[in-house]
Design goal:
Radius of gyration: 26 Å
Largest sheet: 25 strands, mixed
Strand content: over 45%
Structural class: mainly beta
Length: about 575
Amino acid sequence: MSRSFAIRILPVFCSALIGTAIQAQNEGQLHGNFSTDVQLYNQDSAIGAVLPPERLGANAWANLIYTQGNFEAGGRMESYEPSLAGYPAGQAYSGTGVGYRYIKFKVSDLEVTAGNFYEQFGQGLIFRSYEERYLGVDNVMDGFRLKYKPYRGVYLKTVLGRQRFGFNNGAVKGVGLVRGVDAEVSLAELLDSAWTSANNLIIGGSFVSKFQEDRNPFLVLPQNVAAGAVRANFTSARWNIYGEYAYKVNDPNGRNESVYKNGQALHVNATYSVKGLGASLGAHSIDNMFYQSDRSAPTPFDLNINFLPPLTKQHTYNLPATLYPYATQPNGEVSAQGEVFYRWKKGSKLGGKRGTKIAVNFSTAYALDTVHLGLADDTTRRLGYSSKFFTPGKRQYFQDFNIELRKKVSDNWQFALTYLNLLYDIDIIQGKSGKPPVHADMFIVEGLHNFTDRNSVRFEVQHLSTKDDHGNWATALAEFTFSPHWFVAAMDQYNYVTFDDTFLQDGKLEVSPKRFHYPIGSVGYIRSGTRFQMNYGRQRAGIFCVGGVCRTVPASNGLSLSVTTTF
């Protein structure tokens, strides 16, 4: 679709929305939203920012949902003319068209969805269809979903369809067919008056199968690949204990070197909380759990049937969140995380007049303990390796120890102090072959000052010190809010590498450090359900993550505009 055709079709689409809205006022409810991100690029060879073929990139989405009684219908118009640099995480998007549409209705205790839908079984170890729009991750299903509640406390689901693979003037579907069923029982609801405990136990199980025709001339590949999972969740006033085990039959693919080895995963987590105190402990073991509806998917972001949640703290500060974030390694890892939160009471020696909060978090991830089978010319090699489940190997992928202290020191001032100690295997996690692991320390100070009930300033000062990768970083941020409508912000990231005249790059080569500033300014306006934000400056190359899913963002220099609105 050409840009001119996209411009011609947009008024038609808007007219249809307006007409539907007028009709909906008499028959039901209509709501929706619109968002767009536009960027004008500048050449900046100093930071590696290269002009794309078109200097102006734009992503846009418009959602419309109509409901009346037990009926619901919706759709999403999408445009990538062209898409922003580095977007999406997987298969390229281009053009303008409909990327999502569905109808849904309820009859008694049965709910039927036809078209596109998102769904998840348990924690997603064998099935999760979801969207992270600003990463460009979207494996939405296109087909049918049924939800049925045959009895109180009993919930059944079944799904059938194909996943979204890309976008080319409309959604493009993958070749694999995905089928799944899920059942869950809440004992407290099921037994009702016979259940006298204040606690509850929820148990569930899932089965998923994908079908893809075998067209490999050299290997005999399974056309149907099944996976199953069982789970249990115990809840009480203080405890929440969850466990899920998944098993997947062999699925030779481009991510696991085409080995005929079954996969399995176990995820457990427990949390405990009372007033002023909270603690959590989790662990998982992952072995050969890449599960894509197309075994030859071009990237690890495309056509994923499942989702493997990471057991690491999801940082929000710029340096730890975008330089060295961690994502679960589907081919194999053993990971654990623990966190303790405590609040000293007001009036106590450490709590002071307004109380003090502290959170201590530790997470780590190791490779599996494995033994490779067979020689390069031996068919046994196709079995891949033997592994010891839940037994870590010698190679450590990741470690994060962090402490956060928060305190309100007066009616107008509050501060947060954070320290992080990080180990990061950049070779495995980011695929930078041959680079040694990064060892880093970070210190972060955040402050908030309220001038009045409507005006405030928030600031951050961050510092990362390391002798590895790109060396030392410093970040300063100030954000002024003039409620209820305006805010302005300024940030500068400075990769000063080292104070010395030379830098030992990757621990091998002594070089002269190249130092760069990445300044960026922002101004925003908010009114009712509409938000405008404009940015201008440099954006360094890095990693952008949401919920443990990440994409690489290229370096850029230029002007960007973001608009969101809802009705």
